[in-house]
Write the structure tokens for this entry.
Amino acid sequence: MMSHPSTPPRDRIHAHTPMRCPICHGELQHVLVRDLGGVTATTIWQLHAGECPQHGWFQAEFVSRPPREIFAVTKPFGAARRVVVDGREYFSFSTAWNDLPPQEKRQRVDPLEESLWQTSELEERATVAG
């Protein structure tokens, strides 16, 4: 089914995302941003996915606020995958937004503010477990 000509495309390929690889903090390639719709015209609901050449695919979903976590996935919209860093297993990585005190989370913010998408530093590079 074709969309109406005035309807914006649902997927944007090679789009910009504030998300970085949660392991090496490198810029992601093959970025896909999908508009998931919204409850109201002012509510942003998107999924951002991108691939780190060293550590694989990651994605985050958010609704009007920066995401709480970035997930390791097999591909965009794919299953969660396990990442092992220094012997510790991860399926997701907490963002700076998740770590803010509740009173700061109630403030109005730009959901695409890059600093709020940052993840904690990991001490060693990951060994991706397939």
Residues 68 and 99 are 8 Å apart (CA to CA). The first helix runs from residue 102 to 105.
